Hints:
The protein is of the alpha/beta class. The protein has helices at about 20-30, 50-55, 65-80, 120-130, 140-150, 160-165, 205-220, 225-230, 230-235, 240-245, 260-285, and strands at about 15-20, 40, 60-65, 90, 110-115, 135-140, 170-175, 180, 190-195. The chain folds into two domains: about 10-195, Vaccinia Virus protein VP39 (Rossmann fold, 3-Layer(aba) Sandwich), CATH 3.40.50.150; about 205-285, rRNA adenine dimethylase, C-terminal domain (Helicase, Ruva Protein, domain 3, Orthogonal Bundle). Helices cover about 40% and strands about 15% of the residues. It is built from eleven helices and nine strands. It is an enzyme of class 2 (transferase). It comes from Mycolicibacterium fortuitum subsp. acetamidolyticum.
Amino acid sequence: MAKEIDFRPRKAFGQNFVHDANTVRRIVSASGIHRNDHVLEVGPGLGSLTLPLLDRGARVTAVEIDPVLAKQLPATIADHSHSEINRLTVINQDILTLMPSDLTEQPTALVANLPYNVAVPALLHLLAEFPSIRTVMVMVQAEVAERLAAEPGGKDYGVPSAKVRFYGNVRRHGMVSPTVFWPIPRVYSGLVRIDRYETSPWPTDAEFRDEVFQLIDIGFAQRRKTSRNAFADWAGSGNESAERLLAASIDPSRRGETLGIADFVRLLRRAKEAEGEAAAAIEAAQH
């Protein structure tokens, strides 16, 4: 296919295409996609994953940043099946700029082969902007997969691990050898599945999310600090930080790298409650 259209992968787009049929079947099977799904596929490339997604009866919106590939994809699908082309929409756009208004129908699932340099920003952007996405199956560099699925306290646990769990449950689905790609990358890839919470345990509005994410950033800014010291500036002082942490049932001597998403959410909620109580006390004293 690449030879037919005289295509050469571009490093700027981090292009590595899966050419192994068994790997493609494995990805589609693990994604759990069915005929009622509307799949948002990121980086369809030459269409090796697009075709089996369509074969499952799903509707697919493929977002491709490369104009050459975006133009070629409909022709590739049409050559395979004239009926399936009716369930495909191709958008030539940077995924980091994609918004719900760009689509005529909101997606229920995300399947993506994400390049290393944009994997985490793209994933967090899509989870935030498309709450209709219930299931995610992404292929990323193995190191990124380990970070996304890492548990609190582990060596790979960090900001991405905590933030992605704001949206749902995360689990690994194994490694992918470099040999199934063209061109062959220098590193292994990993599959990660995310299932959005059926009912979120906390508010999901942008304001609340941003405040939680701010706490996550603070908690990991200096990983070796105790939580008491890490959150001192945010709370106003070390003593106030300790009080807020204790109110959230968090030992102030714990390090940020041991806190799970529920801890960060609880810390924010208790801080907001304390601020509300303080404001009410001031107002009462003035009357």
